[in-house]
Amino acid sequence: MAKNYSTFTYFLFIFILSSGVLYAQKTQDSTSQKTNTSLPSKNPTVEDYGSFKSNPIKEYNEAYYILDRLNNSIGLPPNEYNFQTPQSVLEHFVRKARNNEYKEAAYALNLNLYPDNISEEDAAILAEKLYFVLNQRVNINWDELPDRPDGQIDIQTTTNQAVAGKPRRSIVFGEVDMDGRDIVLRLQRVKYKDYGAFWLISQNTVENIDALYATYGPRKLDRMMPDWARIKILNMPVWKFVGALIILVICYFIGKFVAYILRKLFLKSDKKWINHIANKLATPAGFAVGVLAFYLLLNHLISFAGVFASTLYAILLVIVIGAITWFFMRMIDYFMLYVAENKIGDTSVEENTEARRMLTYISVARRIVTFLVIIIGASVILSQFRSLEKLGISLLASAGVATVILGIAAQSTLGNIIAGIQIALTKPARIGDTVVFEDEWGYVEDIRFTYMVVRTWDWRRLVIPLKQVISETFENWSITSTHQVRPIVLYADYKIDVKKIRKKFKELLESNENWDKNHPPVVQVVDTTEKAIKIRCLCSSKDASSTWDLHCELREELVNFIGNLESEIHLPTTRVRVQEFPSEENKSNAQEE
């Protein structure tokens, strides 16, 4: 059954990713990747040597950057191109690059950080490289790009009056991670000589093109595929779909092979714990290796474009981290269970206090460590998404509100988790303890994240929140010792000889194997009523269950003894005195006499 379930999980994983490839390509960004096979090399377009001039920015101006030179190698943008707004210049770049007109697209680049001897062909190659990177990793939000020369975003007001604001001379249109460093892509408004101010892709963004292309440029299969293999179905080259599917199948068998090898390798060992590793960890280890291999091979061999690329890699990253987290959770879970099953004594025996204490520690620690692993895994996943990082910064900025909301929403859950830690430290109850909670007698069966499970004597289960265990009073019959003394209460007639009961009780107690001899036989008259005397006999045994059985057996035998003692005259008796009063006729006769 487990094997079939594992196979089903792998094939489900294949189906989801294959369906995602077909579906997500339909929503590809407007900067769709071209089908040209002659992609630029990943080598730097402009070498590190050459004639580099000083910073071209002259004087400060709030509305634009004033330059003393601009693109001496390729010249200024022709007047026919509209570079008046951030949106128009980026649209020009994308449109020209999509049509393979890279020389025209290069006019949108600020090449001032490159030497003056850079050729038009080199500038075109830089434009092609930048377009490829944008296709791979940047989802341009066109709605947030201003279509005004001053870089402001139009704001509608009820009075339809102008909104005062400062002009912007730098606009961010994307961010890309490179070796743990954020590369910010910007548009900047510049002014050169007496020409009017216009927008260009910033010089610092252009300077990083080669480095970005080296990281996110075309993969090996992108360069190897012939033109006939680049036929598109649903906006996706057929070879990419087939290649991704082949890699997925290969990685599926890699995961199965790794799981098989681990299982075979560890099952040969004579040590029990290694055999358990084979059975418990082979499947999650194989799954983690298979997913990781798919992520690495796909990222190394095939490049996807547009929104689909970022979506696919984000999903794969989540699956990889999730698989690794699952593996560590199973490993920790197995380790705790192995220690509990093999290194701790029998916790079903109530007098084994040390074993029950250790099992409680392990049970609480197992859940706390599992919880921490999940939190760490979730944190790693969230840290990979730039939008969630910004969300986290926003929440930190409003820490007071966030704290109040979190405190209200998670008060009960966090309180129970903290109560679980407190129970592990203070030990008011341990796994295996005999407890009485709200008149219910049972055994502590498990202590989980937020609640405690108590198995009653009739095999019902009580689920008790840990906060309630800490805050309310309950009886723990084995907190220090499982030894217990129980009273047997009897009622007998005033005329009974208590010494005979004391003697009989001693005989019965000494002959019963459940008596632990820790508490001597005690028979006392503890109370009287108008009808009988109340006799209490004390018996003791090693634990609560044995004491209960002893208590019931002795009570049965003592009741039988009192009932048969001197023809049952010593059972509780209700006495009624009947007195005959003389009639009226008898009274008159008595008076006459």
- In spatial order, strands of the major sheet run 10-9-8-7-11
The helicity comes to 40-55%
Number of helices: 18
* Uncertain parts: 1-37, 391-399
Beta-strand proportion:
5-15%
Q: Taking all residues together, what is the mean pLDDT?
A: 75
* Class by alpha and beta content: alpha+beta
Distance between the termini: 109 Å
Kindly describe this structure.
It is built from 18 helices and 14 strands. It is α+β, with helices and mostly antiparallel strands. The strands form 4 sheets. It has a 5-stranded antiparallel beta sheet with strand order 10-9-8-7-11. A hairpin with a 2-residue loop joins strand 5 (232-233) and strand 6. Helix 9 packs antiparallel against helix 10. The chain is elongated, with a radius of gyration of 43 Å. The termini are far apart.
Give descriptors for this structure.
593 residues, four-stranded mixed β-sheet, alpha+beta, 18 helices
What's the structural blueprint in terms of helices and strands?
Blueprint: H1 2-24, E1 65-67, H2 86-98, H3 102-105, H4 120-137, E2 170-178, E3 181-192, E4 198-201, H5 203-207, H6 209-216, H7 220-224, E5 232-233, E6 236-237, H8 238-267, H9 272-301, H10 306-342, H11 353-383, H12 386-397, H13 399-409, H14 411-426, E7 434-437, E8 440-447, E9 451-456, E10 461-465, H15 466-471, E11 475-476, E12 484-492, H16 498-511, E13 522-528, E14 533-541, H17 544-564, H18 584-592
Parallel strand pairs: 1-3
Antiparallel strand pairs: 2-3, 3-4, 5-6, 7-8, 7-11, 8-9, 9-10, 12-14, 13-14
